[in-house]
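Hi R.,

Here are the chain sequences for the assembly we discussed:
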Amino acid sequence: MSKEVSSPEGLLTILDGVSLAILAGETVAIVGASGAGKSTLLALLAGLDEPSAGEVWIDGQEITSLDEDGRAAVRARRVGFVFQSFHLVPSLTALENVMLPLELAGRRDAREAARKALEEVGLGARVGHYPRQLSGGEQQRVAIARAFVTRPAVLFADEPTGNLDTATGARIADLLFQLNAAAGTTLVLVTHDRGLAARCGRVIEIDGGRLTGGA
Amino acid sequence: MRALRFALLALARDWRSGELAVLAVALVVAIAALTGVGFFTDRVGQAVEQQAAEVIAADLKLQASRAPSDAWLAAADEAGLATARTLGFPSVVFLGEDSTLVAVRAVSEGYPLRGEVKVSAEPFAPAVVADGIPARGEIWPDSRLLARLGAEVGDEVALGAATLRVSRVLDYRPDQGAAFVDLAPSLLMNLGDIPATELIQPGSRATHAVLFAGAPAAVRAFKERLKEDKLPGERLVDVAEASPQIQSSMDRAGRFLNLSALITVLLAAVAVAMSARRYVRRHLDNVALMKCVGASQRLVLAVTTTELALLALMAAVAGGVLGFLAQEVLAWLLTDLIRGDLPPPTWQPALLGLATAATILVGFALPPLLQLRKVPPARVLQRNLEPPPLRYAAAYLVAVAALLGLLFFLVRDARLVAWVAGGTALALAVLGLAGWLMVRAAGRLRGGVGVSWRYGVANLARRGRESVVQVVAFGLGLMVLLLLSVVRGDLLDEWQASVPADAPNHFLINIRNDEVDAFRAFFTERGMTEPELFPMIRARMTAVNGTLMEERTLEGDRARNFAEREQNLSWAARPQLGNRIVEGRWWDEADRDRHLVSVEVDYAEELGLKVGDVLSFDVAGEPLEAEIASLREVQWDNFRPNFFLVFSPGALDGMIGTWLTAVHLDEAQRRELVALVRQFPSVSIFDLEAILTQVRQVGDQGSLAVQYVFLFTLVAGVVVLLAAIQSTRDERAWESAMLRTLGASRRVVMAGVAAEFGVLGVLSGLLAAIVATIAGWALATQLFNLEYVVDPWVWLVGLLAGLILVGGAGLLATRGVISQSPIVTLRRG
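And here is the predicted structure of the full complex:
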């Protein structure tokens, strides 16, 4: 799989002949320097972007031939996300944010399931709060609850502790791995944090758009 | 110079990136609305001014309901002044069996003393200046009259007892009235033919006048003499007196259109303020960088203000051009109300456009833009460093002051400005509160229906302030359109339905005393109901309780008008149908020898009269006194003859007067009018239906013009919506990417946006329908005494228009934003 974009200086190769298989239930960290292509790889794996060449399969489904809405449908059923800056919808409460992917997947018990997920991350008492009323750590807990609530086959996490202080970051990482272990989800994690990467079953290194280790 | 170069560069860059598009469009819409109205009122104003000099066809005019004495003609001749007589009255002309109402103007040799009469050989053909007046036995009808009658030049028509030949077509006479039309078509004839028509009898409703013209000094001296010696009831009119009346009615119409346009300006200003805020947010980094590399605060300030000035200039030019085109449409909409061609507009409204652009920008865009000057250069390192927050109180004070200044410039009346400002503030506060309650209530509806709905409605509540502004803006525009279309139509229909089918549709006046029996017989002989005849005597009130009218101080034009003009007196044994005594009592047999009068209650109020007062009158030189026995409330719209002053039987015995009646004539009976006018030539006929149709047409055109001006308000509302969408553009792009990352299809995101703007539109429509219904109810019950039935159309049209307009515009404007690829989410994270 490769990814090229055009720039004023001509065609720029961001990912170059990347080939990678991640097994169900595996926990994988993608590490590398800034600009190495980590985020692009994550975007391609999650179907947020299209590769210039090659294919991506998720849970037995080839997603690169699908259109934007087709890939969105796959994400709704099989994929969860945790982002560095939490990315909660500011106009919705914590509960409504967690309900969002359930409703998109057409689940009727969205409210109940979301409430349970928030209790699991220790926010049972704050379901009616808006993101702006929550601390950074709490916002990331909501995001984690939102990611796990649909019981996704794959969870993609992009620097999940990057915007948190060390202590909070550590607690969030604990929560993430704990939930992951309980649900048996495949975890793909992009991080700068070697310590966090070390907690994963496998570490994939990327440099200049090529995989240099762990693949 | 350096600032100008930077400003030009910035303008070009911002223009290309579309940053200024909404701001510029808002300005252009505001200026187009204001200059459109400005150009139009300017043209009409010029037309009125041009006509003012000739509006009385003389320098001085003495007018009365009886012909002024010949002695005045001799005296004027001695003073070296030219003179002419005129006589104006309403009548009916016949061509065979066809008849139509006409305003007759009979003139003597020498007319007009100022201005020119223009005539043509054929109806609507090019006109030439007439040499003299119609010869004896000839008339010059205008094109409208010929068209209505189906007559041609050369035809013989009947006017009263006379038969007259149409020799030319009247195109223009100087004293035909102002730009706004009188209701009936008119004809010009020779004063010498009047006796042959037998139309003018003592007590007839006619306006006699003597015209004077000459050297200014001689006119002034003669005017003083006239003032001293003129009879009571004779009125002196000079140019200065004739034009302010027209001017003031034009001013009122102009002010109304200007106020309508000003609401557009207000909305545009809101859009400008919103765009300016977003502009500032997006330029913080640029400015920080400029400062980092050495730009001073002064340079930043100079560049910003120069860019604004350039923008104002461009918007003023574009808005002015658009306004010029808009006024052509306005003039076209009002074609029938404006007689003759309007002179081309002057440049003044274009300057007004520039002033408006500057005012809006200084008031609403400059305060946030000035913040740019204070951007800390360290922002290049730490992006969260921002300029000190804008002191909104101070900024809005500037904006409000700027708007009030503009308003004063437009209407030039401090009291009116105060009223309008206060009223607008109150109305906006009430509407704003209603809008806020609605938005809040809508926020509660977000549970349960689904993710798109919840997301859309949550957005509405989150952008609460913008949502309220939009609900009010659209609500206001839609409300005015509803009021002028649906509600106005309803009221007219309701009123027409309230008039019974057999209500009188013709007024017959000037029936002579000696004709009364024959007149009654005319109807009974033809198998029609005998009409009820009412006596009518023309008189002038001279004193109240012995105090002369001239010595009484009266408040207001209406009161003075009541006091000065001649009144129609009547007498009756019983109160007329639809009259109710509100104070005092009606007379009975015991009052047989007393002189009592019953006064209409509004009339009494205006003149400060009460039961027991003694009124003195001059009836054709005869004095008359009567005591007020009662005050009456009159239902004026039942089409029956009614009088302000009704006397007890016997009080008016021996006074010279005429009789009048109101009858209902069906299509077949109407043909008998020909015979009636032949037998009773002095009788004047008013066709109420024709008059009502004309009044309705005038009203239709007037409200069409106002609706047209309010279309700009709606456009401004759309611009506010665009500005609001633009200011949330980044947020929306991010949110839609977020939703799609989580697996939402494009359709789900679109449905959310549709829910947001749909609800916004429905709320606006709801607000418009509620206010229009309340206004309709208030007008119907408080002003017109009609039963008000809520019209479902108001609600249907309001809600649908809101849904389509706001929902459609919102969806179109956000479409580009929400179809962005979700990858941006990760990139930004």
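Chain B has 23 helices and 23 strands. Confidence is low (pLDDT under 50) at residues 178-182 of chain B.

Let me know if anything looks off.

Best,
T.
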